[in-house]
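Hey, sorry for the delay on this. The queue was backed up all week. Below are the sequences that define the complex (chains, strands and the ligand SMILES where applicable).
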Amino acid sequence: MQQNIIEYFQELVRIDSESRNERAIADKIKADLSSLGFRVEEDKCGEQTGGNAGNIYAFLPGKTELPPILLCAHIDTVRPGNGIQPEVNNGRITSATATILGADDKSGVAEIIYGIKDLISTGYNYPPIEILFTVCEEIGLLGARYFDKSKLKSKIGYAFDSEDIGEFMIGAPSQNTIKVKIFGKEAHAGVEPEKGINAIRIASEAIASIPIGRIDFETTANIGIISGGTATNIVPNLVEVKGEARSHNEAKLAQVTNDIVSAFEKAAARHKLENIEAKVEIDVKNEYKSFYMDESHQVVKVARRALQQLGIEPGFVKGGGGSDANIINAEGVAMIIAGTGMHGYHTVDENILIDDLVAGANTVKEIIKAYTEA
Ligand SMILES: [Zn+2]
């Protein structure tokens, strides 16, 4: 393993690992975890994701009798993520070329591994530690979805996959994806438009009538994709619309989803010919469930104590996105998401401060200690 976390992080980001191509980084990380004393397994989720590697699950037996604590990060990156050349300027690591840096989420991986490595080297009586490094997080949380969560013995866990050091996401919304197909009736638009049913018109009426954007402080909705029609002189018979709704409150999510669905159904019902009706096909899929941990929960208290040790003022916020933590929480492990110091993620301006990498590893270490000493 590399000398220190700064070199280690740069080593990790040099290894290509866009989603579905995590083989090389998985092999590197498995070897490193083994060298720290972890029992390491890789599952076969690549068969389901279409990727060349599985999730890495690793277990370190403890020196004290406690239930294990879970640490989580993902090992895939978004694009453009091949051939990354990290460079250090004024204490900040960036990508030298037009690629992402991959701090999302290799900063999380490096901080977890070096936080634990450091803790072991101090002779500390650490508890059993579980690590889950997932694949294909960036393309729909696929690794976490296919991972056999019954393996997890921890009651609490931390995903290192957010921005500011000291900031924890203690809640995230639930999300529904909504796909609508509207079937009208084709006709020549100039010769006999009265024999047609215009699917674009139906879509327009529905979209104009639905809630969109920020619905309230914890609920959002969006129509993101629309396609349909083939020519200006043809009354279009098919439109496809795709959108989503998110809320931290499951009842509100159900309500806004229902409002969207019924808007399309009502708009279609208004458009019929003598013997032909417009039709809609609507597919609603829940992508992940919401979670929320209040400040009295052990997982939050441990984080607070750890940050106190580091002299960092903690922040506890609700996020707007979905992550592996949504999937893990749904299986009964209370997991919140810690900042790693990454900034500008999913862009070629992605960067991280060296000081933040070090602080992230210290956060890992202090979380394990706070958990042990509670
Ligand atoms: Zn991430």
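The mean pLDDT is 97.

I'll add it to the shared folder too.

S.
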